[in-house]
């Protein structure tokens, strides 16, 4: 059927764009669009005109978590990695099985990690020379914790900032050689609580890309009010620790301090 | 939304896998798409979910955008609206944010709204902006309502009949007459 009547053509195209054609009528119309350029033009006309309806709405800023979730999906697409949200530790797991001593000893390996703090560094992560003092800030100010991560013997560097107020974590990589073979292993970032227990934060990106924004897993409020917290990195199977606790070699630990 | 040329460049760069361009595209479009999604879904959490789905679709399908099919803003709005319509059709909202919107599509004002758009850019992009709005004023109230409810709620003819408390045949002719008036006004 050919809609020779321009009014009928316009009518159907508008109803199609609005979503008023359903089922068979819609499918039939779509077949006609494919064959009739005038109909296609008419659909385009209404699409453009009806787009003026939302264009008249006042813009509303979505919360940051939307971009954080999108970034996480992007990472999956880019690196084919499975970003981690800290898995809940099973309450059934007997506490005695947790090798607390191992986590406590993470602090000892901190010395092998180059740790640089500060906002200038956060802004100019590639410059190793800039070193900023830790500034005294009020604890109730929503300042991010910042740290840069670098392992001896490899070139890659990461700038990490944790924003407890936004429940968000940002990671940027300055690429270079890596301490693990990324075809086989991933680097997983942890936060140690005041008891020395690790909480999974996510996987460190291993390739250059957009600054990653990931949701910051829930932490007890008391853990995120201190002036400094301790981060650690372990090497894990691809996709991250299967247990929710570190299973591989701990590559380093580092403080992250509140920055101005 | 920003001027069409910039949006188009960002979409085309995104299609080429440029994540930075995609991030800029998000910055440029998200508050506009979110306004539409919030208007349609009325719940912030649903609107956020829809925005995420919509932008991921943009990221994954940006190569399907072609400038000759329409303006980039229209393409983005269409993806967002279709995602919201899918959600609305899957489940009608039970409890809604009270946004103080009027029942047939006037502007919603949220206190978080921050109008930072560039009026110049907007004037460029929306050549003929307001034309539809002006033509809408020439419609009778039930005709206008039918069109707006179909646009924002995704109502079918029978749903419109039930929402407006009118017989199906009456609603169909409201829609038909409303669209015919719009067409002739928009052409004029």
Descriptive notes:
Chain A: Keywords: Cell membrane, Membrane, Transmembrane, Transmembrane helix. Chain A: One of its GO terms (molecular function) is sigma factor antagonist activity. Chain A: It is a single-pass membrane protein. Chain A: Pfam families: RskA_C. Chain A is an alpha+beta fold and about 260 residues long. Chain A is built from 8 helices and 8 strands, in the order ααααααααββββββββ. Chain A folds into 2 domains: about 5-55, no CATH class; about 65-260, no CATH class. Chain A has helices at about 5-20, 25-35, 35-50, 50-55, 65-80, 100-105, 105-110, 120-125, and strands at about 145-150, 155-165, 170-175, 185-190, 200-205, 210-215, 230-235, 250-260. Chain A has an 8-stranded antiparallel β-sheet. The longest helix of chain A has 16 residues, at about 65-80. Chain B folds into 2 domains: about 5-95 and about 120-125, RNA polymerase sigma factor, region 2, helix turn helix motif (Rna Polymerase Sigma Factor, Chain: A), CATH 1.10.1740.10; about 130-185, Winged helix-like DNA-binding domain superfamily/Winged helix DNA-binding domain (Arc Repressor Mutant, subunit A, Orthogonal Bundle), CATH 1.10.10.10. Chain B has helices at about 5-15, 20-40, 45-60, 70-90, 120-125, 130-135, 140-155, 155-165, 170-185. In chain B, helix 2 (about 20-40) runs antiparallel to helix 3 and helix 2 crosses helix 4. Chain B starts with a helix and ends with a helix. The chains are: A alpha+beta (about 260), B mainly alpha (about 190). The interface between A and B is large, with 38 and 67 residues.
């Amino acid at each position: 059927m050919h809609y020779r009547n321009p009014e009928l053509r316009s009518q159907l195209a508008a109803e199609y764009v609005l979503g008023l054609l359903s089922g068979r009528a819609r499918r039939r119309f779509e077949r006609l669009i494919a064959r009739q350029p005038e109909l296609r033009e008419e659909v385009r006309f209404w699409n453009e005109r009806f787009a003026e309806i939302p264009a008249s709405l006042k813009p509303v800023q979505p919360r940051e978590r939307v971009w954080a979730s999108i970034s996480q999906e992007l990472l999956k697409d880019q690196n084919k990695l499975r970003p981690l949200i800290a898995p809940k530790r099973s309450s059934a797991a007997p506490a005695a099985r947790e090798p607390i001593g191992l986590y406590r000893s993470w602090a000892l390996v901190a010395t092998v990690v180059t740790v640089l703090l500060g906002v200038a560094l956060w802004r100019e992560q590639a410059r190793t020379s800039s070193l900023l003092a830790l500034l005294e800030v009020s604890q109730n100010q929503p300042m991010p914790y910042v740290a840069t991560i670098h392992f001896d013997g490899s070139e890659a560097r990461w700038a990490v900032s944790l924003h407890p107020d936004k429940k968000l974590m940002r990671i940027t990589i300055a690429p270079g050689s890596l301490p693990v073979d990324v075809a086989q292993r991933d680097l997983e970032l942890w936060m140690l609580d005041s008891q020395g227990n690790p909480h999974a934060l996510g996987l460190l990106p291993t390739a250059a890309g957009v600054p990653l924004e990931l949701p910051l897993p829930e932490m007890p409020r008391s853990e995120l009010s201190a002036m400094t917290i301790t981060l650690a990195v372990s090497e894990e199977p691809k996709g991250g620790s299967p247990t929710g606790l570190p299973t591989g070699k701990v590559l380093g630990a580092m403080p992250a301090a509140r920055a101005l | 939304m920003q001027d069409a040329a910039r949006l188009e460049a960002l979409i085309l760069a995104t299609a080429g896998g440029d994540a930075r361009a995609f991030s800029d595209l998000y910055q440029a479009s998200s508050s506009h798409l979110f306004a539409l999604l919030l208007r349609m879904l009325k719940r912030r959490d649903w609107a956020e979910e829809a925005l995420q789905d919509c932008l991921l679709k943009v990221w994954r399908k940006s190569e399907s955008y072609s400038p000759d099919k329409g303006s980039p803003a229209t393409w983005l709005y269409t993806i967002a609206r279709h995602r919201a319509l899918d959600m609305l059709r899957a489940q009608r909202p039970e409890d809604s944010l009270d946004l103080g919107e009027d029942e047939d599509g006037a502007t919603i004002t949220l206190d978080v709204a921050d109008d930072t758009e560039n009026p110049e850019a907007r004037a460029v992009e929306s050549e003929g902006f307001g034309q539809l709005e002006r033509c809408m004023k020439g419609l009778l109230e039930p005709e206008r309502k039918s069109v707006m409810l179909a646009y924002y709620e995704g109502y079918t003819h029978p749903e419109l009949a039930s929402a407006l408390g009118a017989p199906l045949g009456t609603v169909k002719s409201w829609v038909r007459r409303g669209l015919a008036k719009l067409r002739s006004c928009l052409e004029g």
